[in-house]
Inverse folding.
């Protein structure tokens, strides 16, 4: 059997040289090996994704805080009131215009006759 | 971390719900005139009238009665005008010159339209009388300009002849 290029020694539980489950490395990695690997992965990750992750982490930490939750609630209510008022103004204006047109037509027989001929 | 995530999601849900409730409450509180809420055409017409001319409920009730009384007359006049206009159109399309029959039909159509305008004007005066004086005056100006004498500027009926004279090119 050929020696492993990294200096690993195969276990003798099985004679099968491809029994990877039983195989263990005989070399111990350097102490900072794992952290260096993660640093390299982190360095290769897209900057946008890292920023997004940071933002969501920060948001998750901030949201349960009473002051932040209260501010969010107040802002949400304010937006709701603003949009509600704007939508109501538009609806009221449209309904009034429609009401005016309907009223004018309802007391004008000539407008009815004109529309009935078309 | 899981607990914080749950709290954050709950906070967001509560905030969105609060915003939605605020939206619905503000919308319903702001859409005040009955014409915006009621989808019935008559309610829309009279709702607009009440809103535009600041009518009390008693005034609106009186006007509603006048409106209901005028509706069948208006429908009958509409039917007669429609028939007369159709007859006139048929005569015009059938001939190639202004025959006496076409001339008579034109006169009859004009007379009927005049009758309709007079009926509308009577109704407008009756409705205006049920309103506060200033609002009634404004109502008459607006309605006559739109219905009885289209093209006449509202509230400037007395000056229209003078302005025509002064603007005439010499």
């Amino acid at each position: 059997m050929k020696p492993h290029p990294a200096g690993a020694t195969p276990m003798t539980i099985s004679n099968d040289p491809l029994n990877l489950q039983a195989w263990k490395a005989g070399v111990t990695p350097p102490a900072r090996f794992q952290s260096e690997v993660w640093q390299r992965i982190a360095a290769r990750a897209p900057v946008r994704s890292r920023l997004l992750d940071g933002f969501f982490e920060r948001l998750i930490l901030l949201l349960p805080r009473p002051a932040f939750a209260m501010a969010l609630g107040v802002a949400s209510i304010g937006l709701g009131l603003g949009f509600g008022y704007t939508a109501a103004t538009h609806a009221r204006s449209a309904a009034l215009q429609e009401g005016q047109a309907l009223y004018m037509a309802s007391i004008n027989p000539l407008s009815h006759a004109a529309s009935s001929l078309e | 971390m899981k607990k914080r995530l749950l709290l954050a999601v709950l906070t967001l849900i509560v905030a969105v719900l609060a915003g939605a409730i605020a939206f619905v409450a503000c919308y319903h509180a702001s859409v005040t005139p009955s014409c915006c809420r009621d989808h019935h055409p008559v309610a829309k017409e009279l709702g607009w009238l009440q809103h535009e001319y600041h009518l009390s409920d008693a005034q609106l009730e009186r006007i509603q009665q006048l409106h209901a009384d005028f509706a069948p007359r208006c429908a009958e006049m509409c039917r007669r005008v429609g028939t007369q206009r159709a007859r006139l159109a048929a005569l015009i399309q059938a001939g190639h010159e202004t025959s006496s029959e076409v001339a008579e039909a034109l006169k009859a159509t004009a007379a009927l339209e005049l009758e309709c305008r007079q009926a509308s004007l009577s109704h407008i005066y009756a409705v205006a009388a049920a309103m506060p004086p200033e609002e009634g005056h404004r109502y008459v100006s607006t309605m006559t300009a739109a219905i009885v004498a289209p093209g006449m500027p509202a509230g400037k009926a007395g000056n229209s002849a003078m302005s025509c004279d002064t603007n005439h090119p010499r």
About this structure: Residues 57-94 of chain B form the longest helix (38 residues). Chain B has seven helices and no strands. The two ends of chain B are 89 Å apart (CA to CA). The helical segments of chain B are 2-30, 34-37, 41-52, 57-94, 100-129, 133-148, 160-167.
